[in-house]
Write a structure and sequence with these properties.
919 residues; alpha+beta; 24 helices; flat; transmembrane helix
Length: 919
């Protein structure tokens, strides 16, 4: 009988036996007392043995003592090292602080210029030394001659230490071995108002004067060690006493033998053994019982009613009644069950049951199990193959399902055209895209290898007839052996002996082949397995063909989308720009960005996102990008440009709804910014788009407070422009919502993660893009990601010239003269004639048709830019003047001489500008 530890429940007859023992005659009672006394003596002896190290508890105690001693030793060493480091660091900080304070103290610099600096500085240095608790404060001239020292006999002598960095305007902190011991000294310069070094100040302190921490903390560490040893001793004693009580004085050897016999009997018998407690919980089940009843791995300590048994068997095991050779159908097995209570003769309450498999039709059951496994394989193939629209991944999933349940090795070979999403070309070579097996060293063609099967091979025959082919014995298949004599010989020698090759068919197309190899089983593949392989590949072929079609459509959409995005950035001098674009994992979206040079050396940055995915969203994105190009040519402010885009998106939605050709766009978002390198100001407006981030030159990251505005296409509300002052070297970060928002997190969390990535990024736009995307791993987002990072530049002051022009026609000649001087200063004398002519015409038009004030500005950038500002709002128009007209030829000349010209409006007037290429 097996006694289970921890069982407290008893049956009535056990309690009756206890009562009979209580009223037993005197000899029985005396025998029990002698047993108790023996156990007590044994307990005391066991406790001494435990602490002596011969028992498990004693060994644990010795291990605890060793651990405590190691921890104490480590703590003492760490304490000493930390105190030494802290003392040195404190000495460095204090000596540097005292030296800098005394060097910058009022009167120090003035005292150095007196006839007798020692008389003034020696008392001050001694007072400061005593107040700061340092060992010395030495003031010296630039040659290192001391003016002060705690020992007067050393005044006038040369200072011992490094002073050259201090003479260059820096500071020196060094550790030296002096006459008073190991010390740290600092040397700082005393500077005149013009920055010249007129003297030096040195302060020093010995490291032992800032120590002492170890003396205070060492008793605490030793006391903690003593307490730990005491606790370990007490704990070991308590554990030993408890173990002795619970094991009834049995030694470790006796308990080990009892457990080994118990375990060997339970797990070696070919009958199931189950012990059930009096409350219906399963206390123990051996391996055979697990197999016969198909019990879960965590069946122990669960109630019998929770194990999923049939009701009749469950009722028998839970009732605890006596049963002899009762036959029960459990699954596909007929089990003979014998059950007896365990509380006879004073044992613990519960019942024990033995199970014996009495099934006579094992062969028939085996065939049924095989059929069930094959159906399960086909079901798993339907569920596990084709989880993604990726051709290679689908082929890999097929190999995982088939190995090792159906074959020992499986390879999938497809035409290269299938991998590209195209229709296969019969007769072309195949490429191995997936392989799986029970081992990795099989001599089969590796993944990626291009294969052209010879005409006699079963693979070529299968491709030609579009039917599966079975080769039961590969060593005798001459057609297969002719494929590659060396490799096929290695395959046979490896142990692979049987093959099924099945074409991957999708309608009238053959996409490739699947090869199933067997090596472990001695029996070759049979006709039933050939049919199973054909069905398995037929189910996978549907998924492979779907993935092929998706690859083709996705490639077309991505090609369209990328063709609509900028292929290169335009040349400009206002910004250093880097960008990234990542398409979505499935489908294409409408994310886009652009960089547009404007007049006056300004640059427009735009990032947008069309709602939705697919070709329709990509086409709409292209229309919006073209519209932004056209609207930006009008030099509109950001809010006005977004207003025009809002109307355009609304019309697109109306057209789509009217035609019913597809779902309407239902809006888009956009962020538009214009940066001026002359004023270093950036005008920004957004329509339902995430705010831009600004990284200051010092690395501080902020999100610009730009009013969101409604998404494009909703209409009804105006947009608002905000101007940002950007220091030179600032980085403006513009992005789409795919970077900061997805199904697993909201936008606030994404913005905080983006802030952290930007704060840790390098200084260049390229490094910023890399840091942001590295933090956004993996690179297969659920939505498109567009990222644009621009680092600002400022146009140098000497590249800008401005003049106020009086409302007098005679002022035109003065402007020409000033322009001539400025061009000569810039080395652009070749442009003098054309520039004078252009500005003469533009200034004359402003005087005649505009209003005051009138200003002229020239900018030297990649081109020479001439701008004339006036308060009028009438824009000139280019026309051909008749032979009898007195005017109308000025702008025609400007258009002929300038590379570009145009007009932009400001809140107070207009600017007519013209650009000329630099020679």
């Amino acid at each position: 009988m097996v006694r289970l530890p921890g069982r407290t429940g008893t049956r009535p007859n056990r309690r009756a036996g206890d009562r009979r023992l209580e009223h037993a005659p005197g000899p029985a009672r005396r025998a029990r007392e002698r047993a108790e006394e023996a156990r007590s003596v044994t307990g005391r002896a066991g406790l001494r043995a435990a602490l002596s190290g011969r028992s498990v508890a004693g060994q644990v105690f010795m291990l605890q003592v060793a651990i405590v001693l190691l921890l104490v030793l480590g703590a003492v060493v760490a304490l000493v090292l930390q105190v030494r480091h802290d003392s040195t660091q404190e000495a460095r900080n204090r000596s540097l602080a005292v030296a800098e304070t005394f060097a910058n103290a009022p009167g120090t610099r003035a005292a150095l210029s007196t006839p007798d600096p020692t008389a003034v500085l020696q008392p001050r240095a001694e007072d400061a030394r005593k107040a700061a608790h340092v060992d010395f404060i030495v003031v010296m001239n630039t040659d290192g001659i001391r003016y002060t020292h705690p020992k007067p006999d050393r005044i006038g002598k040369k200072f011992v230490g490094t002073i050259q960095p201090a003479l260059n305007g820096g500071t020196v902190v060094e550790e030296v071995n002096g006459t008073i011991g190991r010390l740290v000294q600092a040397v700082v310069p005393v500077k005149a108002p013009d920055g010249k070094v007129v003297g030096l100040v040195s302060a020093g302190i010995t490291t032992h004067n800032v120590g002492g921490l170890a003396d205070r903390q060492l008793p605490v560490v030793l006391g903690a060690a003593a307490a730990g040893l005491a606790l370990a001793t007490a704990g070991t004693a308590l554990v030993s006493r408890r173990l002795l009580r619970q094991t009834h004085g049995l030694g470790p050897g006796e308990m080990t033998r009892m457990y080994e016999h118990h375990d060997a009997v339970l797990h070696s018998v070919r009958e199931g053994v189950i012990i059930v407690g009096d409350e219906g919980e399963l206390l123990l089940a051996n391996d055979e019982a697990h197999r016969l009843l198909d019990l879960p791995g965590d069946a122990e300590r669960r109630r019998v009613s929770e194990l999923g048994l049939d009701p009749v068997t469950e009722e028998l095991l839970a009732s605890g009644r006596i049963a002899t050779d009762e036959v029960h159908l459990v699954g596909d097995r007929l089990l003979a069950i014998n059950q007896r209570p365990t509380d006879l003769d004073g044992g613990p309450s519960g019942s024990v049951a033995t199970l014996r498999d009495s099934t006579e039709l094992r062969a028939l059951s085996g065939r049924a199990e095989l059929a069930r496994e094959r159906l399960s394989l086909l079901y798993d193939a339907g569920v596990g193959v084709g989880t993604t629209l990726d051709v290679t991944r689908t082929a890999q999933e097929l190999t995982k399902v088939a190995v090792p349940r159906f074959a020992d090795f499986v390879t999938v070979d497809l035409y290269d055209a299938v991998l590209a999403g195209e229709d296969p070309e019969p007769g072309a070579a195949l490429r191995r895209v997936a392989a799986g097996g029970i081992a990795q060293d099989a001599p089969l063609y590796p993944v990626g290898h291009q294969i052209r099967f010879v005409s006699t091979s079963p693979q070529a025959h299968s491709l030609k007839t579009r039917r599966p082919v079975l080769e039961p014995r590969l060593e005798a298949a001459t057609g297969w052996l002719a494929q590659d004599l060396e490799r096929t010989g290695q395959i046979v020698a490896y142990g692979i002996h049987s093959l099924i090759t099945v074409p991957v068919r999708a309608g009238t197309l053959v996409l490739g082949l699947v090869n199933f190899y067997r090596s472990e089983k001695a029996e070759p593949f049979d006709a039933e397995e050939l049919a199973l392989a054909e069905e398995l590949v037929a189910r996978a072929a549907v998924s492979i063909d779907n993935a092929r079609r998706y690859t083709r459509e996705h490639g077309m959409a991505v090609t369209l989308q990328r063709s609509l995005l900028p292929r290169s950035l335009p040349e400009q001098s206002a910004l250093d720009i880097a960008y990234r674009y990542l398409p979505a994992q499935s489908g294409v979206g409408g994310d886009w960005f652009d960089v547009l040079p404007l007049s006056g050396a300004r640059v427009a940055l735009v990032v947008g996102d069309v709602v939705g995915h697919g070709l329709h969203a990509a086409a709409t994105m292209g229309r919006l990008r073209t519209a932004v190009h056209n609207f930006s040519a009008l030099d509109l402010p950001p809010d006005e440009l977004l207003g025009l885009l809002d109307e355009l998106v609304g019309r697109i939605d109306q057209d789509e709804s009217a035609e019913s050709a597809g779902a309407p766009v239902t809006g888009a978002t956009c962020l538009y910014a214009i940066y001026d390198p002359v004023s270093r100001r950036c005008a920004v407006a957004r329509a339902g788009h995430p705010p831009p981030a600004v990284i200051a030159p010092d690395g501080t990251v902020t999100f610009a407070e730009v009013p969101a505005g409604p998404p494009l296409g909703l209409g009804g509300l105006p947009f608002e422009t905000v101007e940002l002052d950007l220091a030179e070297g600032s980085r403006l970060v513009m992005y789409t919502d795919g970077l900061v928002e997805d199904r697993g997190r909201d936008i606030d969390t994404g913005l905080e993660e983006l802030r952290g990535a930007l704060a840790a990024a390098g200084g260049s736009p390229e490094e910023t893009c890399r840091a942001v995307l590295d933090a956004r791993m993996p690179f297969r987002p659920g939505d498109d990601i567009a990222l644009l990072v621009a680092r600002t530049r400022a146009l140098p002051a000497d590249a800008i010239a401005e003049w106020e022009v009086p409302a007098d026609p005679a002022a035109v000649s003065e402007v020409r003269a000033a322009v001539t001087r400025r061009l000569a200063r810039w080395g652009l004398e070749e442009l003098t004639f054309t520039t004078e002519l252009v500005l003469s015409e533009l200034v004359t038009n402003a005087l005649r048709y505009g209003g005051e004030p009138i200003r002229v500005r020239m900018l030297r950038d990649r081109t020479l830019i001439c701008e004339v500002y006036d308060s009028g709002n009438t824009s000139p128009h280019l026309r051909y003047a008749a032979t009898t007209d007195e005017g109308g030829r000025g702008l025609f000349l400007v258009a002929q001489l300038a590379e570009r010209w145009g007009t932009r409006y400001t809140p107070t007037g207009k600017v007519i500008w013209a650009e000329q290429p630099l020679p």
